[in-house]
Amino acid sequence: TRTRGRIRGPYPAPRVLLSVRDLQAGTTRGRVEGTESKGILAFKGIPYAEAPEGRLRFQPPRPVKNWSGVRSASRPGPVPVQPAMPIFRFLNAGAARQSEDCLYLNVWTPGTDAAKRPVLVWIHGGGFLIGAGSTPVYDGNYLARSGDIVVVTINYRLGALGFVHLDGLGKKGFEEASNPGTRDQIAALEWVRDNIEAFGGDPENVTVCGQSAGAMSVGALLGAPSARGLFRRTILQSGAGRHVLGRERADHVAELFLEALGNPRHLAKALSEIPVSGILRAQGVVNRKLMNARDLMAMTPCVDGQLITETPLEAVKNGSVSHIDMMIGTTLDEWKLFSPLDAALLRSSESRLISRFADLLPQIADNPPDPEEAVRAYREALRKRGSLTTPFEIWSAFQSMRVFHHPASELADHHEEAGGRVHSYLFSWKPAAFSQSLGACHAMELPFVFGLASHPMTRTFAGFAGSARRLALRMQNAWIGFARSGEPGHVGLPEWDAYDSEARATMIFDRECTLADNPLSAERSLLEAWS
Q: Which residues are designated catalytic?
C-alpha cells in the first residue's frame, strides 16, 4: 500500500505490551528477559554455546549450560576477539569490549506469541577478521517493526580462532578442529531451530542473510550438509561461493600459524594457554605473508571433508541445494571502500595502472592478455556504460568485477541451471558528496537494508535526500518480502523477474529503480575471456 508517497508493507502494527511477562521468553536452557522499544522486544546477549576458551579453543562449539531463574538479555555479549581497524570502525565499533567468550546472539521480535513470523538471521561481515552481530548498523528493530518479522544477529569466532584449520595436521586432540567459525554459525542456526518459536518466529521459515564475509559464510553453509535443513532461503550481499580454502591451502595456513607461535611441542596445552595477544600477533604474521592482490583473505572456511564436504559451487551445480531460494547482489563500486588501504590508487597514473594489470593478470588468467590491451579494453567497457575512465576508476571496476560481481553471477547462474530459484540485484546509489571517491562502494547498502537512522554512517551523509529514504523503504520491503515468501517484488518496484542465466534479470537499486538484463556484461565478458 502507499501512504503519502511512502511505500509500506501490508504488515500489522506491533501489539501493545501489557505485562512484564511479555518481556520474557523461554529457551531450552532457561528463561531470558529483554527490553521493549516502540513496540518491539529486544533480547540481547543470549548465549548459544559455551565460551570457546582454554582447551575449547579451535574446537567445535559446546552446548551452553542451563541457568536458573530469569537471565537478563538487555545488553549484547562481548564481541569476538579481533584486531583494531579504525578505518573500518563502523564494522567493529564494539571491539574495545571483546572476549573469547563471544558466542552470543540477539533477537528482535514484535512479540513472544504464537504468530510464527518469518525469521531473518544475519551473519555479519568483516573479512572473517572483524565485526560482531551487535554492531549498531545491524540493529534489527526497524526491520522487525516494519515487516512483522523476527530478526536475529549472531557472533562467531573470527581470525585464527575461527578460521585456522588444525584438523589436517594430524595433531592429537584436534581431529575436529576445522571451521570453528562456521561451526559456530551452524550452532546459532540450531539455536534458532530449537528456540525461535518462543520468540514469535517460525523455525520452518528461516532466511539466512549476510554481507561480505557474512555472505561468503552463507555460501560456505551451502557446502555443509548439516546446515541445509536449518534455513529455507538465503540472501547474499557482496559474497558468493568461491571463498573457501582447499585442503592443501588450509594446511599451509595452519602450519604458518603454528610456526608464528614458535611451533610449541605440547600443542593442546600451549594453545590453551597462549594469551590472546599472542594469537593476534601470529594471525597478523600469517596474514602479512599470504594476503595479496589475488588472495585477499588467508583465513576463511575450508573444505575439510567432514563439515564442509564440497565447495559451494559444487553443491549448487549438483542440485544439492536447489530447494533453497536465493537472492544475491552486489554494489556497483565495491572496491572503492578499500581504496583508503591503497593510498597510491587514487593518484595512480596510466603506467602504474598497466603495471598493476601486468602483475595480477598472470596470476588469475589462463591466457593473460597484453596489459596495455587489457587496460584499453576495460576503459572502453567503462566508457560504454557512461562511467569515468581514470586509472582509479578502471582498477576499481576491474577488482569489483573480479572479486564480487563475477562470482555472484557465477553462483546465480549455477543455482538457476540446477533448478533453484534466484533473484538478483545491483545497488548503484551514490552519496552526492562522495560520488566519485566512494560511489556505491562495498557495504554502502547496509543503512538502506537496516534503516538509515540506525547507521553511524548517516552522520557522514547528513542531509539524505528524499530519494534515499524512498530507496531505503523499497529495499527493506524487498528483503522482508523475500524472507516472508521468497518474492522480493512489491508495489514500490518495477516487476522483478526471477533470474535466469541467459537474461540475468537484475533489479537496479538507485534513486529510481529499474529492472535490467545482464548489467555490466561487457566487463564480465572481458574477465571471462581472460580466465
A: 212, 334, 442
